Amino acid sequence: MAISLVASPGQARADGASATLPALPTQTTSPVFNVSPGGDIQAAVDAASTAGGGTVNLASGRFDITAPIIPRSNVTIQGQGSTGSGLTTLYNALGTDMVIMVDGRSGGLNNIIFQDFKVDCGLSRTQRSYASDPGKNYGIFLTDTSASNDLVLLDNVQITQCLTGLHAKGTSDLTIRSSNFHDNGGVLYYSHNAYLRRVSKANIQNSTLSDGSTANGLNISYSDNITVQGCTVSNNYFRGVRAANSTYIDVLSDTVSGNGDTGIIMNSETAGVDQFRIIGDTVTSNSVGISTSSNSSNGSVWDNRVSGNETNLSISSSSTSIR
After folding, report:
1. What is the DSSP string of 117-175?
2. pTM for this one?
3. pLDDT tens sequence for the chain (323 residues)
């Protein structure tokens, strides 16, 4: 249904005050290092890094991964596709002993691109059902142990059957486009399809975050200038898109359906969300359609199609303009 209630003037953020979009990495396309299944991906990544940057070109087929792949600055890891008969798959060959498939925990990465491949941890939901975080079975993990990361692109990447699909911390200028994170999670509420924490300027566009067996399709915390646009976020056990303790969050023209708790929620860990827009989304068949907390502020919930939820709206009108 269309929302017609409008709060008092001055409460809401202006429609034109959008989140700042990230810059894209500057791709270093050559030299090119070709790797076939059975070849050493890490050796090619390191050789490209030593050359000052380049492209690691992975052939079609399945690469059985027995040690984490460590990305390097100015290096593109590129496959032949993330779906279809000619796809490139990075497959977990260690089962529950795998730590992280693509391991950027050292931080200090810049100008990196992941493109046209699938990351498959290959673990059933039972295998991922840990009582506490085991610190393993992640798909792609980027954090800032030594220094922050900058200029990261995931383009047409599929991540599936991991405890957490993508975990990005301490990263700026992150773009995720035309990607599919699905069937990740275990039993823990913080095992998400994608988790952005301490991320500044990110754009998640035209992507799918679905069928998470725990937690959220997309979880955002302690971040700023995050845009989620044109995405499908569906059938996650807990929430679809959740943001907390963040500023300038845009959720625009997405389809959010069938999530067990709330479709789109702005709430808090220690503080709410300031300066947010939820505009033009289709939100159906969730427990709650759209929710905003009373300690969130300067929000706009405008022109959404919200129907068929157990509760369509749970909105604090003191913090949010609704129409």
Report:
1. EEEE----TTTT--SS--S--EEEEE--SSS-EEEEEEEEEEEESSSEEEEEEEEEEEE
2. 0.94
3. 333 223 333 334 445 568 999 999 998 889 999 999 999 999 999 999 999 999 999 999 999 999 999 999 999 999 999 999 999 999 999 999 999 999 999 999 999 999 999 999 999 999 998 888 888 999 999 999 889 999 999 999 999 999 999 999 999 999 999 999 999 998 766 799 999 999 999 999 999 999 999 889 999 999 999 999 999 999 999 999 999 999 999 999 999 999 999 999 999 999 999 999 999 999 999 999 999 999 999 999 999 999 999 999 999 877 789 98
Give dist(CA 152, CA 172) in Å, integer: 8
User: Tokens 């017609």 appear where?
Assistant: 4
Helix (H, G, I), strand (E, B), or coil: what is residue 300?
strand
Place of tokens 């498959």: 120
Helix residue ranges per DSSP H, the chain:
41-50
